[in-house]
Design a protein that fits this description.
Elements lengths: L21 H23 L11 H19 L13 H19 L1 H7 L1 H4 L2 H22 L1 H11 L1 H4 L14 H10 L7 H22 L2 H13 L5 H17 L2 H18 L4 H15 L8 H10 L3 H7 L1 H21 L13 H24 L6 H14 L8 H35 L1 H13 L3 H18 L2 H11 L1 H6 L4 H13 L9 H10 L3 H11 L1 H12 L9 H23 L1 E2 L3 E2 L4 H18 L3 H4 L2 H4 L3 H30 L8
Antiparallel strand pairs: 1-2
């Protein structure tokens, strides 16, 4: 039996791709270069296409022609497909993709002027059907069979929409019209997801791959080890910091677990952390990284397109929720280490911060350039290209990570595969957008959800969280977000919630399946490194990442946490949220700074419970949404939280002192003197 899982059963980050041999490998590298140049031409109007107007639809078809064939060359069709060579049928599929895309590149202006999305000629319908099937197959390889199956079912839903029951009944479309609309309109396969890819995402993928191939991962690890490695639980805190830095750029949970975990998980185990706890720390830290600015993965750019807002606004809004997530994780790690009296790493094991900064200062400069052009100059599309250019130029002046010819080809091949997989996923899930657009179902579902929830937005959020989690188990984060942004976001916004907070809520809950069994893909990736069962890691990850289950409800119901509102309200809500997270995390681990261990005695459990309740009250979104303001009068939830936490702290201290006195009075034989 093969030890390599079927490609169709895995998510994109897990797929074991093949490196195309010889000339085909060079073709993959050339595809990455040409796609990047086409994007630069579109952004800067460089005039590469003399005499040809590169309208939006033609531009996206050019990107598909360059990148989608790479999926067939690099991702095998099934588990038994040859890895050392590309079979003839994959070459045929790649060639067919180029030919079908070339037809639409040549006829783009004619299709636009004659409205082919509503009345395409028979030849265009036939070629649309071919390209749709090719996209479905590419999606199956790059996104998994589950996601491809969901997309195919929804894509052809418009054909049978008229005979569907009740809430999912819609306007029916003949099959030829549905296929033509999916390929030729700007609302389906080449709609918002692909436009976001062509406008912004490509540059950040280029930057992320370049950073890894020029030594960025090692620099992040070295800085993290030098900063916190010597403190108690330092090896785990290193995992948090390095994963946050790397994952924010890569946007990939699984690759982040693997690249960072091979260093941090063994270090945690050496310093006394249990294997499942070490794996859980890495799984949670890598998952949270995709939610952290300045770069949050491709989903955040798609979100910016859906909301029609600058990406910088999305990144800024994500800052406080991301910091709350990592703050809760770090408090739990410190409490775990203190309760088990774990020391930090030996000085001889740690790199020098001065040396790490001297060798890796280039990455700091690159980040400054990236953030400057993103936030100050509002050039989200070009910022990563400027940063990548600076990175590659400076890198060639540094012998340690200088790009050789072989390494350059490896870098370009990896870039081609990353871009190709993302094109397959984004074009594929675009069919979902098109199906709802054709039938008008998104508006119907929104109204039905609002009706079911009544006047209780919290109920609607709970329904949304469950839906997001379920879809997150079978889709990539981006695919899950796109689907729910169409179906779930409108009713939540209609219920009076802030649009940015709503879309962030969907993103967070779509990520939760990465650390929650039975799926827990991040735990699955950490298991072989930690050498323990992935279910054990998954349960630890749920406990360590508990804040991620709560914080989305808080900022959805009180958008001050995503920086929407007056500054004094933002400051107050942020302060109480951090206090609440501190109490919750401390209670979860049974240890609090200033109190010590929370003893497993009746008074100890009572104090721990009061601290937990106080933290929840401080973190809760407020009296208005929960409808309980009158119960506590002027005290309010925040005041109640302070009282409960103070009472729990006092009781825990008392229980700790009683336990210490009892231990002191025990003689060597175990009897009380």
């Amino acid at each position: 039996m093969s030890d390599r899982p079927a490609a169709s059963d895995l998510m994109p980050e897990e797929l074991l791709y093949r490196v195309p041999p010889g000339a085909l490998g060079a073709l993959v590298a050339a595809s990455a270069v040409l796609a990047s140049l086409v994007v630069l031409n579109q952004q800067l109007n460089l005039g590469f296409f003399v005499g040809v107007t590169l309208i939006d639809t033609r531009y996206l078809f050019v990107l598909v022609a360059l990148l989608l064939p790479v999926v067939f060359l690099s991702y095998p069709a099934h588990a038994k497909a040859p890895m050392g060579r590309v079979p003839w049928y994959d070459l045929a599929l790649a060639t067919a993709t180029v030919a079908a895309s070339a037809y639409f590149i040549a006829t783009a202006e004619q299709a636009l002027s004659q409205g082919w999305e509503y009345g395409a000629p028979r030849s265009a319908v036939g070629i649309s059907a071919v390209l749709a099937l090719l996209i479905f197959e590419a999606l199956r390889r790059a996104g998994g069979a589950v996601l491809a199956g969901i997309v195919v079912m929804i894509a052809f839903y418009p054909v049978v929409a008229a005979v569907m029951p009740g809430p999912i009944k819609g306007l029916a479309q003949p099959l030829p019209d549905a296929i033509a609309y999916h390929i030729l309109s700007s609302e389906s396969a080449f709609g918002i997801p692909m436009r976001a890819f062509g406008q912004i995402v490509v540059g950040f993928i280029v930057f992320g791959v370049a950073l890894n191939y020029t030594g960025g991962g090692k620099f992040f690890n070295d800085v993290a080890f030098a900063l916190v490695g010597k403190y108690r639980g330092g090896a785990a805190q290193v995992g948090v910091i390095s994963s946050a830095l790397q994952g924010s750029i890569s946007g990939s949970v699984i690759s982040n677990v693997i690249s960072s975990g091979v260093v941090t998980i063994p270090a945690m185990k050496r310093t006394g952390f249990a294997a499942d706890y070490a794996g859980g720390v890495e799984a949670v830290a890598s998952t949270g990284a995709v939610l952290m600015p300045p770069v949050m993965g491709s989903t955040a750019f798609v979100m910016a397109s859906f909301l029609g807002k600058p990406y910088a606004e999305i990144a800024i809004a994500a800052a406080i929720p991301g910091l709350l997530f990592y703050f809760g994780l770090m408090v739990q790690i410190d409490a775990y280490a203190a309760r088990r009296r774990l020391s930090g790493m030996m000085p001889s094991e740690l790199p020098s911060l001065r040396q790490a900064m001297r060798e890796g200062w280039v990455y700091i400069a690159v980040f400054v350039v990236l953030v400057f052009f993103m936030l100050n100059e509002q050039q989200e599309a070009m910022a990563p290209f400027y940063a990548t250019g600076l990175l590659l130029v400076i890198n060639q002046l540094m012998p340690r990570h200088r790009m050789t010819r072989a390494k350059t080809m490896e870098f370009l091949g990896a870039l081609g595969r990353e871009l190709a997989a993302l094109v397959a996923v984004l074009a594929g899930v675009g069919f979902i957008v098109g199906a709802f657009s054709m039938t008008g179902l998104s508006g119907t579902l929104a109204n039905d959800l609002v009706y079911l929830a009544g006047d209780k937005p919290l109920v609607l959020l709970v329904m949304g969280a469950i839906t997001s989690f379920i879809f997150g188990m079978g889709m990539t984060v981006t695919a899950c977000y796109i689907f729910l942004a169409i179906v779930l976001a409108p009713p939540l916004v209609k219920a009076g919630m802030d649009p940015v907070a709503v879309h962030m809520f969907i993103l967070y809950w779509g990520m939760i399946s990465f650390i929650t069994p039975p799926v827990a893909l991040a735990a699955f990736a950490a298991a072989p490194i930690a050498k323990t069962g992935y279910f054990r890691i998954g349960w630890q990850a749920m406990k360590l990442g508990s804040i991620i289950y709560v914080v989305p409800f808080v900022f959805a119901l009180n958008p001050a946490l995503v920086l929407r509102g007056p500054w004094h309200e933002i400051a107050l809500v942020t302060a109480t949220a951090f206090a609440g997270v501190f109490f919750i995390a401390s209670s979860m681990q049974g240890y609090m700074i200033g109190v010590g261990p929370m003893r497993a005695t009746p008074p100890g459990w009572a104090g721990r419970s009061l601290i937990m309740l106080g933290g929840i009250a401080l973190l809760a979104p407020g009296d208005e949404w929960l409808g309980i303001g009158k119960v506590f009068g002027r005290l309010g939830l925040d005041g109640l939280g302070v009282v409960l936490a103070a009472a729990g702290t006092a009781l825990s201290r008392l229980a700790g002192r009683g336990h210490a006195i009892m231990e002191k009075n025990l003689d060597a034989g175990g009897t009380i003197r």
